[in-house]
Write a structure and sequence with these properties.
Layout: E1 7-10, E2 21-23, E3 26-39, E4 52-66, E5 70-83, E6 91-102, E7 108-126, E8 145-164, E9 169-182, E10 193-205, E11 210-223, E12 230-244, E13 247-255
Antiparallel strand pairs: 1-3, 2-3, 3-4, 4-5, 5-6, 6-7, 7-8, 8-9, 9-10, 10-11, 11-12, 12-13
């Protein structure tokens, strides 16, 4: 059975409050946002259901420090979400981003990025006695399946180093790490996992407007449920053509 789900998002207003404070090279900018949403089937049910109005309040802050050869940027915010007729779906999502760049020498650059996201998913589960402890409303138990909230934690780390050999050649290495976990995996069939990726790339400027970039990468995916992981290897070649200051084209071929 296909259910037509209509969503109407109404922008109640995004209020930016750029209150800047300066101390040496530090910049602090708090901000605040509000938006509204109307949903006529928030739980994606195929039987009778109520409509719901939702309000999202987003407080946050951005902190930035810059010097001649480095920069550090930290930003974080909350999404505080409330629904008028379904308080079981109220939630608070959290986001944190950190970025760091350092020109170590005239020929070497180092970058580091870290991200954290703690958000909420709606997941369909089969209603039975063991799943009632998840907070499912007993009035919905005759439906068979219902969407419940599942908390997700996602962490990513991305260090990167780049070295310029000459004016036309450069090399870089990038490592990526991702970790995803949930507050409930047994009833929702979600899989927690870690993923590792290493990328080695070269760059050759044939001309000021034509750049070739061969690359080799390897990644390893490992689930926490005891299942078999996967290893992937990729070899690629990318050509990039700069047509003008704000326009470029590129083509890439590879084997995986």
């Amino acid at each position: 059975m296909h259910t037509l789900i209509r969503r109407a998002a109404i922008l109640a207003g995004l209020l930016s409050v750029p209150a800047y404070a300066y101390s040496a090279e530090w910049t602090v900018a708090p901000y605040f946002g509000v938006r509204g949403e109307y949903d006529d089937n928030i739980r994606l049910l195929t039987v009778g259901h109520d409509t719901a109005w939702g309000t999202t309040v987003t407080p946050g802050i951005e902190i930035d420090k810059a010097t001649v050869d480095s920069r550090t940027a930290v930003s974080g915010f909350l999404d505080i979400i409330k629904y008028s007729k379904d308080i079981n779906l109220d939630r608070t999502d959290k986001f944190l981003n950190v970025a760091y760049r350092n020109d170590v020498t005239e020929l070497d650059d180092f970058k580091f990025r870290a991200r954290y996201k703690g958000d909420t998913l709606l997941r369909d589960i089969l209603i039975n006695q063991s799943t009632l402890d998840l907070g499912v409303d007993p009035q919905d138990t005759d439906i068979g399946t219902v969407a419940v909230q599942v908390r997700r934690q996602r962490v990513t780390l991305d260090p990167e180093w780049r070295h310029r050999w000459t004016k036309k050649t450069a090399a870089g290495v990038h490592y990526g790490y991702t970790n995803v976990s949930y507050n409930d995996t047994f009833n929702t069939n979600l899989t927690e996992y870690q993923n590792h990726r290493v990328l080695l790339n070269l760059e050759y400027k044939r001309t000021e407007r034509l750049i070739f970039a061969p690359a080799v990468s390897a990644s390893k995916y490992r689930p926490d449920n005891g299942g078999s992981g996967t290893n992937n290897y990729t070899v690629s070649m990318r050509a990039r053509r700069i047509l003008r200051e704000n326009l470029q084209t590129s083509a890439e071929v590879g084997y995986r």
